[in-house]
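G., before I forget:
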Amino acid sequence: MVEHLLPTPKVSEIYEGTIPFNPVVTTDCPEWKEQLDVLKTALEKIHDCAVTYGDGGIRLVKNPALEKGAYTYDVDEEVVIAASDTEGICYGIATALQCIVYIRRQGGVRVQRAHIEDKGDKEYRAVMLDLVPWHTLRQVLRFMDVCFYFKIPFVHLHLIDNTACRIPSKAFPKITAKKHYSYEDIKVIRDYAKARGLTLIPEYEVPGHARQLGTHYPEVFSNVLDGDPGEEKSEIGASIIIEDVVCAGSEKCMNGIKTMLDEMMELFPDSPYIHIGGDEAFIKVWNYCPACRAYMKDHNIEDEYEMYSDFVGRVAQYVLDCGRTPIVWEGFPKKGAWRVPKDTIVIAWESLYNLAPDLLKDGFKIINGSWQPLYIAGHRRWTTENILDWNVYNWQHWFEKSPAMLNPISIEPTDKVWGAQFSLWTTSYEQAICPFAENASAFIERTWNLERTLTKDQFYKKMSKTMANLWEMLREE
Amino acid sequence: MSLKILPIVKKQTLLEGKVACDVAIYTEHALWEQYVNTFCECFEKLNNTACEIATGGIRLVYDPLINKSAYTFDADEEIVICASDDEGATAGIATALLAVKVENGKIVCDKAHIEDAPDKPYRSVMIDLARQWHPLRHVLKYVDICFLLKLNVLHLHFIDNQSYTLPSRAYPNVSTKGRSYSFEEIELLNNYAASRGITLVPEFEAPGHAKFLTNAYPEIFMPDVDKDAPSVVSEVGAVINPDNIICAKDEAFDAINTLIGEICEMFPATPYIHIGGDEANIDVWNYCSYSKKFMKDNGLEDVHELYAEFVARTAKMVIDLGKTPIVWEGFSPKGAHRVPKETIVIAWESHYNLAPDLLKQGFKIINASWQPMYIVPNLRLRWGINEILDWNVYNWQHWWEHSAATKTPINIEPTDDVLGGIYCVWECTYEQEIARTCENSTAVAERIWNTKSAVDYDKFRRTAQEVLKKVFGLIQEM
């Protein structure tokens, strides 16, 4: 029902009465054939019925007068969804999937008569999927269904970490785990995303979280040490070892990284953004590596912190040289931040290494990835209520070392905050899919609409209703 | 420090140090080879290391001196599991899977001595396969979850208004197209459950929730009602239509007998058959000529008596086939004398027939208190680990205003006539239910295995997090 739609549309007028759902779809716009099929398949799945092509049911219409990413949805005699671009029509389809519902008391699938005009506030609304814990191809597509259903257009794929690399590599085949996505699988993922208006952002993580590179190709990627750098732990207490960090001084290592980035860009030819990692690196190691020390000296780099910025800067510049935009995790410090190209977009997540206000001051466009409440990490997660209480200009944390723990960081609204990202870490499909879908519904409500309009109870009521069709859509036959 | 095992073991003595052995397991008991196989399968999945069936590793030993359903787990000089029966052996295997890990190519375990046994014999999870289709692959995952958490009974709600998911040779039209299991799949399920020590309880639902039957074979099951026959609304607002109930006539009972016979054949290992018996819109019988005639012919005073008689007849069919019938609370105290006392009743709604009354009527019962033991799609009716830890098998709660347990929960004195408890997952798809089912099942298992001891929430949660890693690891798809 329109009243239960999430995210809440900007303008919605609900008229008296419902019309029966006529399972027929059509479009006057040939370039939306794929989207029409997505609509058809989803309706068949949700309502367990056959849907055919033709007039009188749902019509996708091109309306050049509408803004980019905007759509209208009108129900009178038939359902008419209009947009000027593919992004907008996908949002309109998602609206239809939520609004066409089985009403028990009326004995069938019905459509509320209504008029909707809608557009998201923040352009960047993303989900990150940690695919390092193994997920089957089918499961990856199910996560993308959730993104589609809730109008979350960016899907960031975390494909490599210390424990495994899930993509193939021709140049460094040993890093690829036995369980991985083949070239064909990646193509399936890309096509599935494209048909749903989703933009994929693949991540290739350096200099930290790179154990697969360091252990399989130490001669290319590893630091050669002449001293003992000691130990380091991540914020959740995981040990960080020397092999986790690549050498920042050797040309061979940087060439290896560029080769892998080339491969990544080839795997995802239509992704305008490439994520290059950049977080939680055990940089102290570089002080014990002669190649790194020599590099620092040659480039007037004072210490490992400045070296961190320089390294991220070099990788980011390579991505820019290839015609794509780099995204990095908050990780490089304030020191030497000038060495990172300003076109790099930074995800402020930990509120520790480099705070959102400082990143903005340094001229970066940023994404809000606030750990609290936007992470699901194994069993650690927040409630939909926590997410409703958050906004894109707000950062919170539970981690004692983060300044945001005792005093959440809030900044003035600015377009330099490009949007927000909801991240799913180290968890299996079974553990994650339900909390993921529920929290995604709150996340999108707060990023599509910057101004909060729902109380906890109003949101809960909507969510209770609007989840039903999503579960049907995800169900396996 | 202690080994992270749920449900919490009855007695655990931690010793100094660790024991290491080969990555292998062995038993001399020929009938337990399947359990050793199961250990290997699960171990490999959880530890990414192949486990051999050979000596030099864990030993599974038949020890007749150990009590029924109990087991011991010793990790000292070597790792030895001892039990005297299948339930004890599989519980011991589950404990071993939670206790050991792999280090440097060896199985390693903190040295400990464990003695453990359940307080209640019936520890169950129910999955609704009729309202939402679950491919067999998903059903097998529930067997794994039950196995690892020592929930020894998996109850499968195969049949409801929405579909009939079992195959039938006698009445092939009852099986819902595209949403029913084949005979081969049922056999596979049986074997999978047997190798994990899980008892399957198949449910055949009658006389209510039977739209699929009445519509598939109207000439046998459909009430012959006039237009005035009423619909009623269930506690969650579901409309119960006249065609949701089977009429009372001899042909219908004969067909039910055949279908139940087929189900008994399909599930030869189970001692129990569930015959439904809840939320029947029995007022419809007042408008049905067959049922009115049946009441008159059999000297039944009203539809309440007919309800009890209906349940009694189906229960007797099950008993005649050599199994024990289980029913939902549904028939009222009036006419309860008709229902054979071997019938086990699941007290869930605290409305139609209350737990203390059922016990007085002479039935053994199982606790499925709606609150906190149900999962339903409605997000407002949601209980978590803490609420389940606060519940016990002698306690019934409800949120529904018409239930007798709403304002004041029902509590009874501990008795062996309460056989255990059941956690019911209703109307959800696999994606919707799986995380919550796994999480809450840790607490469910705890409260039925250990009915007496109190637990600390925080400590329980920390242990549950570790155990859940293994549960989710076991059901992960590769």
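Chain A has a mean pLDDT of 96. The first strand of chain A starts at residue 11 and ends at 20.

More on Monday.
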